[in-house]
Structures are given as C-alpha cells and as structure tokens.
Amino acid sequence: MGRMGLEISRLRKEINMTQKQLAKIVGVTEGFILDVEAGRKIPKADLITKISKALRKEVGKLDLFETDAMLTPEPDKKVVKVIEKPVQAIWSDALAGVLANVPVYNNKMDQAITTKHMPIISGKIEGFPKDKVFYLSIEDNDMAGFRISKGDLALAFSTHELDKDAIFLLEFNGHHLIRQIKILDSEKLLLVSNKGSIITSTVMKKDVKIIARLIRVEITL
Predict the structure, then answer these.
(1) How many CB atoms lie within 10 A of CB 109?
(2) For residue 204, how far is the Cα from the chain centroid?
(3) Same domain, 36 and 12
(4) How many CB atoms sit inside 10 A of residue 174's CB?
(5) Do both 67 and 131 map to the same domain?
(6) pTM of the entire structure?
(7) Domains in the chain: how many in total?
C-alpha cells in the first residue's frame, strides 16, 4: 500500500466514512477508491483535491511523488512519474476551483482597485456566471435612502438588460451613476436617487446604457 493510500484510508476511517461514501462524494467508483488505498492507483491532482475536501484534511504531501520502488512497472506497462508539486501550489490550484478573485471597481470601472474572495458553487457566484460578477466601491451618498452609502461594497452582475424597479450601475450623459430604474413605457425610463429625499429624472431609454445590476450591499460599520 502506498503512503498516500494509507493516509486516505486512515483519514477516511477517522471520520467513519466508508469507501463507498467517499467514492460517491468525489465522483468515482468504490473500486477506484479501493485501488487507491491499496496503492494500485495514484489519483490525479484534481481528484486528490476532492478527496482532501471530502476528508476535511489535506492528504499529507499528497504523495504526488512516489519513490522509484513504488513505481516499479508491471510487465508490459508504462509508468509515468509525476513531478513533485509543492503543497502550497496544490492548494492554490484547489482553491481556484472553489474560490474566485472577484474584482472591486470604482464607478468609473477603469481598473480593479482590489479583489475579494467569493465561493464558486456549481460554477457560479451568487447564482450568476462567475466571470460576470464584480464589486462596486460606493463613492457617494446619492442612494443613501436605499441603504447604499459611501464606503459600502455592492456586489454587481454585468448585464445590459433591464429588470423592473432594480438598481443599476448605468451610463448617462457621460457619467456612471447608480440609480433605481423604473420603466415608464417602451421609450422612457425614470431614474430614481435618494439622498435624504427622492429625486427622479425622466430620460429616454436610448440615452441610457446599462452596465450592471446591483445584487446586494455589504455595509461598512
């Protein structure tokens, strides 16, 4: 039995998980887990990551670099050595599959001022495609009446589509603004801000460019 197989077997038993249960969680057959624990097979890095997550512990040094003796080939079988990969690099790769670096922009959207980690679930963030989500650093109190104040972070989703009475980052008269938008008719929109009192502007839909819809706000205390 290889060192990694022993480690997986030990960690699995520590949390009273069966080989069948582990196989189901990571998406392989029970026989494959049996072969891994017996040292007959060495899983790829992405599968090791899944196993580590399922067992809630990093699987040792992950044994991505078995000794020559452990790699003795069976007759007529070609053995490929896997090059050692540092644990930190492995975990960076693993986190790339479960966490995304979401950019934080100011209203101008010219470049990211920082990033925030967000969990990826089923390839999405907050239910939206992960490459369409970003944060906005709120720069004024124009929407304070909507509990969106200067210094807050608003999670936003890139879109050009209008939703009824939603709050958007938009471009109007060469400026990027955050406003609630109400659809008046096929040609007109009502832009709503609230800086202590409600201010409305009726504009032509053709003059407004929708950049993103705000999803939620993280309030600074």
Answers:
(1) 17
(2) 36
(3) yes
(4) 5
(5) no
(6) 0.56
(7) 2
pLDDT for res 184:
93
Domain assignment present for residue 93? The answer is: no
Strand stretches in the chain, DSSP E: 99-105, 114-119, 124-125, 128-129, 133-137, 153-158, 167-172, 175-183, 188-194, 198-204, 208-218
Range of the domain at 40: 3-85
Residue range 77-102: average pLDDT? 56
Q: Which of 50, 85, 120 lies at the terminal end of a domain, its last residue? A: 85
Question: In degrees to the nearest 10, what's the CA dihedral of 63, 67, 69, 71?
Answer: 60
Mode of pairing for the β-strands spanning 167-172 and 175-183 = antiparallel
Quote the CA–CA distance of 63 and 102 in Å, as a whole number.
Answer: 32
Tally of CB atoms within 10 A around 16: 7
Residues 205 and 108 in one domain: yes
Say yes or no to pLDDT of 75 above 70: no
